[in-house]
Amino acid sequence: MTIMVHHFYESQKIETGYFSAADNFYRQQLGAVKTERCDYHTEKGRIFQRDDIDLWLTLGSEKISVSEKKRTRDFNDLYLEVYSKFPDTSGWTVHSKADFLAYFFPDRVFWAGFPQIVRFCRESLFPQISSHWFENLKSNHLKKSAQKKHTIKIAGQVYDVVLIQAYNESDGNSWYTMGISIPFDMLKDNHIKFRIYPLK
Fold first, then answer.
1. Distance between alpha carbon 90 and the CA centroid of its chain, in Å?
2. How much is the pTM?
3. Rounded distance, CA 101 to CA 103, Å?
């Protein structure tokens, strides 16, 4: 399946447009008393964002870091970035140091401890993904965004996963972002704790 070119700055505009709804979610449903977003244009904020920390929440006396992701459509699965720039730069799933992952869909929010997801990917998911799959996706869809479904087996259970290639263009440069979408059932079956909240 081939899809449109991914324009980096247009994607950024979509993300910032969610901030108000996201902040309301943190306050109303998680009980956050303070929200501090990490501004990439400041030295301190840039350091945090390079570690995939988009904001800090104060929940009672506890302060936690959050990786915030958004999708404009809900396919009942979780997209995990493997390469931010294929093949040399790893994606946020690989290097994230955030305490929690907040994934916003149009009508609901996925909330989970991020270290458990990173560990599951490293130990169970990624070893089942052939290194050739991403290269083949790129070779078959040069300068395009595309998807390819594959079947894998984890702990004896068979799952359909989707490799996703986003071809990016910005300021005369181009690159491929590569990731994989996995069904929520895979997380449940492998004892990954998460919650789904309605987005009010």
1. 12
2. 0.90
3. 6
